[in-house]
Amino acid sequence: QPFDLIIRNANVVTASDSFPCDIGVRDGRIATLALALELKSARHEIDAAGRTVTPGGIDSHVHLDQATGDGSIMADDFESGTRSAACGGSTTVIPFACQLKGQSLRAAVDDYQRRAYEKALIDFAIHLIITDPTEDVLYRELPELIAEGYTSFKIYMTYDALKLDDRQILETLSVARAEGAMVMLHAESSDCIAWLTERLLAAGHKAPRYHASSRPMLVEREATHRAIAMAELVDVPILIVHVSGREAMEQIRWAQSQGLKVYAETCPQYLFLTADSLGSDNSFDGAKCICSPPPRDAANQQVIWNGLENGLFEVFSSDHAPFRFDGPDGKKAHGEDVSFDKIANGIPGVETRMALLWSEGVRGGRITPQQFVALTSTNAAKIYGLYPRKGSIAIGADADLVIWDEGRAVHISNEMLHHNVDYTPYAGMQLSAWPAITLSRGEVVWDGEPRGAVGRGQFLPCDSPAPAQVRRRKTELPL
Ligand code: DUC
Ligand code: ZN
Ligand code: ZN
Ligand code: ZN
């Protein structure tokens, strides 16, 4: 039986290994890995001589077409967002279905499945965001949805429209424990932020750069500590998303040293931006880099690199939250004179994530190629229940692959990107690598041009993530 595709002379890198081989693909899956694959016939061949081939990226934290409720509109939907992801070497994204307060979880899922319908160019799973944990939501809807493949959800400790109080968090964590789901936590202390914001605004400090002053590391540290304590009490694994620097990391390091299953995610903005990116004067330009938690300083960038290298972080995702700078529904939705707390929160990055980490991390000598694969793909597949279909180069896995172009100067500009945002925070950076070809289930979706039909991406129901599986718990809950 002929292959549909053979990739010859690849230098394959997985999360554990690196080896030369040919990859035979049939029906969208990896059918054979062999040295000098004799096979005569394949409909297509790609010569990857001299090139590294990694698993396609899994960007497990992206916001696409997500309702914001504050007059801003996300610039990327499931079409432009997944196209941009593919052009940057990702083959799976996991955006969010965000429950509105008062809305059923089912209605939220249906809403986002409609938003995704026939749009995605690459495969996607969906995380839930739980904002209204009523009894019906927690004890009827959530178990049903987890059984249907929505096995991870995010909860917020800040933002009035999204946050849960500690009692609600405990209750929600205990459902995750019972049902084997993975909980992602946005850990920032709501009241501290509100108090600081009020005082900054009273003093007339309203420019974008004060966004960073309103959310110092302390507020992230405090909430991270509290989240860990609650997860320990309930005895359930959690993942702290978008960790920005030293103080939250110290809490996570402590938890991990106690044997608690506390996983952590960080993002490119904490390696490549600082609070200075929000502006050194009162100009509005800094709004481009407003995200939460805010980027810190050069010393913290180094601490984040250390955490990627030493294994504190499991996941490197983009937290792509796309808002245009100009226009009526992006960063300027309420004008340029508006205070920092009214500016849409988030920055784009789904397309630049992989190349930034390959270029500055691997080629920069900070992490190994295997660590790169673990951080950008394999670990997320395991933590969110997509492994081994996604996240590896192995027989039977989906043929989701990146063939790298290395050693070429890549000057980042927004013009080269395919998102629907009118800027990139990384403009001007000089990289030494970019994906040459991205394959999704054996189909070329990027080879210097975006390829692949709109709507070809499939929804991926997730298994109960290995670390969250019910049978692995060590203790009974105290009653
Ligand atoms: N949290 C996110 O996860 N993304 C964008 C902004 C935020 O606060
Ligand atoms: Zn063909
Ligand atoms: Zn968040
Ligand atoms: Zn996010």
UniProtKB/TrEMBL annotation:
**The Amidohydrolase-related domain covers which part of the protein?**
52-445
Q: How is it modified after translation?
A: Carbamylation allows a single lysine to coordinate two divalent metal cations.
Please give the cofactor(s) recorded in the UniProt entry for this protein: Zn(2+)
Record-listed N6-carboxylysine modification sites: 154
Any GO MF annotation of the entry: dihydropyrimidinase activity
Q: Does the keyword RNA-binding apply?
A: no
EC number in record:
3.5.2.2
Q: Which UniProt keywords apply?
A: Hydrolase, Metal-binding
Cited InterPro entries: Amidohydro-rel (IPR006680), Hydantoinase/dihydroPyrase (IPR011778), Metal-dep_hydrolase_composite (IPR011059), Metal_Hydrolase (IPR032466), Metallo-dep_Hydrolases_sf (IPR050378)
Gene Ontology annotations for the cellular component aspect, listed alphabetically: cytosol
Please give the superkingdom of this protein's source: Bacteria
Family the UniProt entry places it in: Belongs to the metallo-dependent hydrolases superfamily. Hydantoinase/dihydropyrimidinase family.
Q: Could you identify this protein by its name?
A: Dihydropyrimidinase
Q: What species does this protein belong to?
A: Marinobacter psychrophilus
